[in-house]
Write a structure and sequence with these properties.
Elements (H helix, E strand, L loop, with lengths): L2 E6 L4 H19 L33 E9 L2 E13 L2 E10 L8 H12 L2 E8 L3 H15 L4 E7 L5 E10 L2
Parallel strand pairs: 4-5
Antiparallel strand pairs: 1-2, 2-3, 3-4, 5-7, 6-7
Length: about 180
């Protein structure tokens, strides 16, 4: 399986919106996302800043720098990573959203995509998972443990910027 990772811009927005439906479906059991009347998930403008678009529904902090990346396996869409540099000094890089399609899971595609993001954005990382998403917690613990040779912290924490929700969070520094 040949993984390619492409920085995404406005031209990739329709592809992202299609993949987003599968991601949100996977997350629905943890976040209680309801279907719309037509059976889709309406995400509004939530992810627009990652594609250089404004987000009128809720202001995006001016200091945040969002980047989107599309993953393809053997030329077929396979997932995405949304990375948000929330601060440059000191660095704080957030793995905002991360998705690998089910048919490509357990083939190290997610691990390769994650490592590529960590390498591309050297600095202090924060990766969060919902408390009920045990599979994601295991994935990120394993991937980050491998990437850092065990040099990371993990705990539970509340985040005001995410409606004071509690998450499992890993922190580490890449590019050392």
């Amino acid at each position: 399986m040949n993984l390619t990772i492409t920085p995404a811009g406005d031209a990739h927005y329709a592809l992202f919106q299609n993949l987003l439906q599968f991601y949100v479906y996977d997350m629905a059991e943890h976040a209680n996302f309801p279907f719309e009347a037509d059976g889709s998930f309406a995400m509004g403008d939530s992810f627009d800043p990652y594609f250089g678009r404004p987000r009128p529904s809720r202001p995006w902090p001016a200091e945040w720098k969002a980047s989107a990346f599309m993953a393809h396996v053997d030329g077929k869409p396979a997932g995405f990573a949304l990375v948000n540099v929330q601060s440059e000094t000191p660095s704080l890089i957030d793995m905002s959203e991360f998705f690998v399609a089910r048919q490509y899971r357990r083939h190290r595609i997610g691990e390769q995509l994650a490592a590529a993001m960590f390498d591309r954005f050297p600095g202090n990382w924060e990766v969060r998972e919902m408390l009920t998403n045990i599979a994601a917690q295991k994935f990120w613990n394993r991937v980050i443990n491998t990437y850092t040779n065990g040099n990371f912290t993990e705990g539970r924490e509340r985040f005001e910027r995410y409606r004071n929700s509690e998450f499992v969070v890993q922190r580490f520094t890449s590019g050392q």
